[in-house]
Amino acid sequence: MAEAKTKSKAKSKATSTPEEKLRALYRLQFIDSRIDRIRIVRGELPLEVQDLEDEIEGLATRFKKMEDDRAALETEISNKKNAIADSKALIKKYKEQQDNVRNNREFESLSKEIEYQELEMKLADKRIKEFKAQIDSKEEVLNATREEVEGRRKDLENKKAELEEIVGETKREEDLLVKLSDDAKKKIDERLVTAYMRIRTGSKNGLGVVPIDREASAGSYIKIPPQRQLDVAARQKIIVDEHSGRILVDAELAREEEEKTDAEITKLLK
Q1: DSSP string, 72-140
Q2: How, if at all, do strands 209-213 and 239-240 pair?
């Protein structure tokens, strides 16, 4: 039974007349153009929101790395302070040993150890100062980054609120139009839908099917030959404008489909 229905549906598409195909294509174009107009109202807002989200994510990653670097420097400072404490303990120990040496050689050896530990302390103290300077520098960058992230988050909140307001005003209509567009495509031969989508995608204004307007395809100033205009008006075959590459329909067919489809959409939106 399901197979029979599929064959019947395929046969219905295959045996539809050229005029029915043209009407179905123009109806699809009319619906898709209304979707385009809704989305144009949003402008660049969706991209701006995405860019801000990406920027905030990048700043957060950068901020986390700087915090990790600062923590590593603080660990180094702690290690150096411990090394200084160890050196002080050793110096005290060596000085006590000097009081009990039996000869000059032992005394000189301990003196060299004390001198070495004093140098280690000076070097550790120098490193601590360097690490602290690096921490201060990173702290300035962290504060600036923190402020930048906060500013970007406020911008993102504003952009999202603006986008949500626009989407909220048109969401019901857009959802309906998208469904109607999908339904319309199911009633057209796949080959024609593919051709329509290819032409539409390659067009700046998203038009793949256009009526003849003032002896030219809508949006074009190149006149269509009289015989070609008669062929389009006859509605006996699918004709493509050789200059714009768009599928042509006559103005009367376009007007009829626009009025019928517009009335259907208005009724569904009530």
Answers
A1: HHHHHHHHHHHHHHHHHHHHHHHHHHHTT-SSHHHHHHHHHHHHHHHHHHHHHHHHHHHHHHHHHHHHH
A2: unpaired
Spatial separation of the C-alpha atoms in residues 104 and 263, rounded to whole Å = 113
Does the predicted model carry a pTM greater than 0.70? no
Report d(CA 167, CA 243) in Å as an integer. Answer: 37
Tokens 């006859």 belong to 234
8 A C-beta contact, residue 217 and residue 246:
yes
**Domain 45-169 fold:** Helix Hairpins (1.10.287)
Taking CA atoms, 115 is separated from 95, 125, 128, 141, 220, in Å, by 11, 15, 20, 39, 92
Residues 28, 177: Cα–Cα separation, whole Å? 10
- Give the residue carrying structure tokens 């302070």: 81
CB 261 within 8 A of CB 31: yes
Amino acid at 9: K
Determine the pLDDT at residue 74: 95
Low-confidence ranges of the chain (pLDDT < 50): 1-2, 4-12, 14-15
**Rounded CA gap, 19 and 196, in Å?**
16
Q: How far apart are CA 7 and CA 102, in angstroms?
A: 113
Q: What is the pLDDT of residue 259?
A: 96
Q: Which residue has the tokens 């690096």?
A: 134
| pLDDT score of 76 | 96
User: Rounded to an integer, what is the distance from CA 22 to the centroid of its chain?
Assistant: 36
C-alpha–C-alpha distance, residues 63 and 236, integer Å: 66
CA angle 90, 95, 99 (to 5 degrees): 145
In which residue ranges of the chain is CATH 1.10.287.1490 found? 45-169
Residue 16's pLDDT is: 83
